[in-house]
Amino acid sequence: MIRINENYNLLQGSYLFSEVNKRVKAYQEKNTGRKIIRLGIGDVTQPLSPSVIAGMKRGVEDMASAASFKGYGPDQGYDFLREAICDADFQSHGINIGSDEIFITTGAKEDTANIQELFAQDIRIAIPDPVYPVYVDSNVMAGRSGAFTDGRYRNFVYLDCNERNHFTPSLPSEPVDLIYLCFPNNPTGQVATKEELKKWVDYARKNRALILFDAAYEAFIRDPGIPHSIYEIEGAREVAIEFRSLSKTAGFTGTRCAYTMIPRDLMAWDAAGNPHSLNQFWFRRQSTKFNGTAYVIQRAAEQVFSSKGKEESRAIIDYYLGNAKLISEGIKSQGWNFSGGTNSPYIWFKTPDGLNSWEFFDRLLSECQVVGTPGAGFGKCGEGYFRLSSFGSRENVQEAMERILQVKF
Ligand code: PLP
What we know:
- By secondary structure, the chain is α/β, with parallel strands linked by helices.
- The protein has helices at residues 16-30, 50-63, 79-90, 108-114, 133-141, 194-207, 246-250, 278-289, 295-302, 307-333, 357-368, 394-406; strands at residues 37-38, 102-105, 125-129, 148-149, 152-153, 156-160, 178-182, 210-214, 240-245, 258-261, 267-269, 275-277, 338-340, 346-350, 370-371, 373-374, 385-389.
- It folds into two domains: 14-43 and 309-406, Alpha-Beta Complex (Aspartate Aminotransferase, domain 1), CATH 3.90.1150.10; 52-305, Aspartate Aminotransferase, domain 2 (3-Layer(aba) Sandwich), CATH 3.40.640.
- Pyridoxal-5'-phosphate (PLP) binds next to helix 4.
């Protein structure tokens, strides 16, 4: 008899965005009037830049002739892309990361979900709340969560993020082995200072813990004092894996290209106390289960790191940051407390009038025909909060904010 992985039964409800889509569909079926504006899911709307398209075309041309055709690529990604990343993102900023420490992948979602396979079943995991749901669900599927009661899994150590701590988690009060951090944060839009990150790096070094640092939104950082990489912190090479993605940096949500940094110094230990290289473990995992990102896409991605490509991506991100400013100003004039909106594409605010997250979602949909994301979908601490994203077109963001400002909540 074929039996299922019963851990899947522990997953909560449908995935957040499926529920959002279900409610929007149900509303649309009953109401065919005003256009619905989506400021919910973090998907981009602006096209790929001219440099990226040129890189992609070059990749296509290469595939058209026997002399330059490419079949299976190198397991870790092509040298041309890893070297371009290494130089543009790390070496030119004085950060010590080598191209052999960079793994090209199709998405940060895939890698942040899959990385947990490298670790023992009984490790203690610290997860911020609210959080990008993939970190939680991938560990639930792997059987590390224990039962779900009162909005939380028994075996996870939750790091509460709320207004009191400015949505920045405190160190755990009990020992943990694996820590998920994401800055600029999805969903709260919060960023971390060097001092904040140092606190975590020091903790991890002292406790032989590992930090999984999700930097999917680093390109939105404009404040020169805010670190883009955890490797800007001394000692982080010994204790952190960093995930970056071209999804939001260069509009690759549908094109799919991301990269994960695993320094050679990074170790995890077996039960006998022997150290093992996580770089080698991940290489082994990827070469068994993953056959690489398409050559054409890696050629497109290479151009993101060219000087023209960097300028073009920056202009697109500036456009989204302009949207974020408009949203923040609107939220502020409603008198709602919010975080994010600068150095981040997300605006996270407290729902008015004591409405819970889904009640506010329904009101925003029915009264303004605007779709956002209920904070409760990101964890227990997200209840009573709401996320708007700045990835829409300028016209849509303007119209959505005009509609919101006309309603007295
Ligand atoms: N990490 C965070 C925090 C995200 O918000 C997202 C997407 O929304 C991802 C990773 C996924 O990125 P990718 O498109 O590279 O899979």
